[in-house]
Amino acid sequence: MLKRLIIPVLLAVVMLLGGCSLSSEKPSDGKLRVVTTIFPAYDFARQVFGNTADVTLLLKPGTESHSYDPSARDIVKIDSCDLFIYNGGESDAWVENILKSADEVNALRMMDAVEALTEDHEGIAETEHEEHDKDEEYDEHIWTSPKNAALIVESIRQAAVTLAPENKALYENAAEEYIAEINALDIKFNELLSGEERCFIFGDRFPLLYFFRESGLNYRAAFPGCGSETEPSAQTVAFLTEKLTESDTVPTVFCIELSNRKLAETLADENGLPVAEFHTCHNITADDFSAGESYVSLMERNYQMLQSALTNGG
Fold first, then answer.
1. What Cα–Cα distance (Å) separates residue 89 from each residue in 38, 84, 132, 226, 267?
2. For every residue of 204-251, which 3-state class applies, written as one string?
3. Cα gap 96→35, rounded to integer Å
4. Cα-Cα-Cα-Cα dihedral of 13, 41, 307, 271, to 10°?
5. What distance in Å separates the CA atoms of residue 274 and residue 269, rounded to the nearest whole number?
6. In sequence order, which ranges of the chain are alpha helices (DSSP H)?
7. Would you write out the chain's pLDDT as a tens digit for each of its 314 residues?
8. How far is CA 231 from each of CA 119, 235, 264, rounded to the nearest angstrom?
9. What are phi and psi of 280, to 5 degrees?
10. Residue 303: CB atoms within 10 Å
11. Cα separation of the two ends of the chain
């Protein structure tokens, strides 16, 4: 609610300033300007556009993705860009206010490129069920499925060709190459994860529904993907501890990137198990960003991690 009140105020400030000190001049090199909210959108866009565009990531590396608030400068960037790519879903509710109030913005909503799944709380200990029983919501972490990632890249390719048809061949080749890399990873994951039923224990939030549903995997986790991470209850710890003793459970406790890892490490210590990080690709560390890590390289990291967890218990 607070975020919904803040956005109109920021928009009013931008309009009053007339863009003055916050204005963003058109680049002299003739490049397109693409603005993205989160890392998957940023990575997919830079892969397709290559050096024909300046691609900006609004969410700073290393920060919590669900609590992002746009600044007045961010709003100016969105208002003046050639293409704005956002995900959609509850975390992006602020975007709709901007798109309604700003000048015409050429926007691409990634959730429109795929078939969205409703949030699944069956395997979650702390489900915040009071809220979710009333209104069914879509899980917004669509890119965790490689098949969805490929569809999103294709959607961005189409937008790129519309923006700069003179670069059609370049965009089509770039998208085709990246989709081929994503599809190759998808095949590897399918080969690794097929066969016997397994259950993965997350002492953390669980924003991986699309990956797990596509791979036919079971899971138990402490918190939902978009839940505000809190201290787990005694019942949650007991729930996950009990599951760790069952025969179909992978002998590893999983956490996600940028997590405090406290619950995962507690569960692992109490059960003599290792902790492994499953990277959701939602955001990355500043070091990974500087090193040029991509969706494909992060998912390859996940593949190596899962291979180790399934063969050596982490």
1. 13, 16, 14, 10, 31
2. EEECCHHHHHHHCCEEEEEEECCCCCCCCCHHHHHHHHHHHCCCCEEE
3. 15
4. 20
5. 8
6. 2-17, 39-49, 72-80, 93-101, 129-132, 146-163, 168-193, 209-215, 234-244, 262-271, 286-290, 295-312
7. 445 545 555 554 454 444 444 555 556 688 999 999 999 999 999 999 999 999 999 999 999 888 788 999 999 999 999 999 999 998 898 998 889 887 789 999 999 999 999 998 889 987 644 444 445 689 999 999 999 999 999 999 999 999 999 999 999 999 999 999 999 999 999 999 999 899 999 999 999 999 999 999 999 999 999 877 668 999 999 999 999 999 999 999 999 999 999 999 999 999 999 999 999 999 999 999 999 999 999 999 999 999 999 997 66
8. 22, 12, 12
9. -85, -10
10. 15
11. 41
276 and 253 Cβ atoms separated by less than 8 Å? yes
Which helix H or strand E contains 53, and what residues bound it? strand 53-57
Which residue is it, tokens 């505000």?
Answer: 228
| Residues 44, 155 contacting (CB under 8 angstroms) | no
CB 98 within 8 A of CB 8: no
Question: How many residues appear in the chain?
Answer: 314
Residue reference for tokens 């965009």: 171
CATH architecture of the domain covering 194-312: 3-Layer(aba) Sandwich (3.40)
- Say what angle helices 146-163 and 168-193 make with each other, to 10 degrees: 180
